[in-house]
Amino acid sequence: MSASLPSPSLPSPDGSFLIGGELPVRRLGYGTAQLTGPGYWGPRGDRRDALTVLRSAVEQGVTLIDTADNYGPGVAEELVAEALHPYRDDLVIATKGGVVRTGDSAWHIAGRPEQLRAMCEASLRRLRTDRIDLYQLHRLDPQVPMAEQMGALDALRQEGKIRHIGLDTLTADQLEQALSLTGIASVQNRFNLLDRASDAVLKVCETHGLAFLPWFPLANGALTGEAAAALDGVAQGHGATRGQIALAWLLHRSPVLCPTPGTGSPVHLAENLGARDVRLTTEDMSRLEALAPA
C-alpha cells in the first residue's frame, strides 16, 4: 500500500466508533447476508465454509458482526452463534427484525409491537444470548404509527433484551422524528461511491453521533464503466483493488460510516479488510467524489 498519509481532515480508515456512545467497534465490520443462498434464502454451500469465514473475520480484527433474522430466514443468525458463541467481550452483534420472509423474493414488513417482540425474542434464542447489542428495525411499517414501533423497541431495551436501537432505510425527516421518540444508535441506508441519495441521512447521523452502516457498500457489482476507470487510477497508486478503494472511500468520507461488507469467501474477506490499510489523499478523494451522479 502507498505510504501517502491522509489529510488531518480525513478520518482514519482503521479507526473505531462508539456505537451508542459506549460500544467500541472497528469501523470496517462484516455482514452475513452472503452466507445464505440466492435471494438471501436458505443455506449457501457447505455450512463449514460459512463458519470458517465468520471466525476468520473475527481473527482478523472485525468487532462488528451485522446480521438479520430474515437472512435464511434464521440461517445467518444460527451461523453466527455456531461460529462465535460464546462471544468475545469486544464483539458487537447487530441483528435486524421487522420483515417476514415467505420466499426468496417475498418480503413482508411487519412492525406491529407484538410482531417486533416475537421476532426479537426469536433472534435472542438463535443467537444464544440474553441481550442483543444492536437491534435494528429492518423497515418502518407504514401501517403502524412510528411511535408504536419505537415504543415496542424501547420497551425491549428497558427490559434488557436489547442494548441499543437502530433503524434501516428511512429518510432524514423520519430519522429526526424517531430521535424525538427514543434514543437511536445507528442507521442502515444504502450508500456507496455511486449512490449518495442518503447524504442527508448521513448528515443527521454526524450531527447526533449515530453510526451509519451503509448497505451495498460495494455498489452491488456496479463499479464498472467510468467508475471503474477512476477507481483503477486511484487503486494503482495504492497497490489496491477497486473494492478496497470503494471501501476506503467510505471510511475516509465520514467518521460515522461503518461499512459491513459481506462475503462467503475467505479470499474476498481478506481483500475487503485490506481497505483498512489504504490511506487516501485529498486528491484521491476529490477524484472519487466526482463520481457521484448528478
User: With helices defined by DSSP (H or I, 4 residues minimum), what is the helix count?
Assistant: 10
Main sheet makeup: 7 strands, parallel
Form type: globular
Gap between N and C termini, in Å?
A: 31 Å
Low-confidence stretches: 1-8
- What is the rounded Rg? 18 Å
Protein described:
This protein has helices spanning 47-59, 75-84, 113-127, 146-158, 172-181, 199-208, 225-238, 242-253, 266-273, 282-289, and strands spanning 16-19, 23-26, 30-31, 64-66, 92-97, 99-103, 106-109, 132-137, 162-168, 186-188, 211-212. It has 294 residues and is of the alpha/beta class. Strand 1 (16-19) and strand 2 (23-26) form a beta hairpin. Helix 1 packs across helix 2 (75-84), helix 3 packs parallel to helix 4 and helix 5 (172-181) packs parallel to helix 6. The two termini are 31 Å apart.
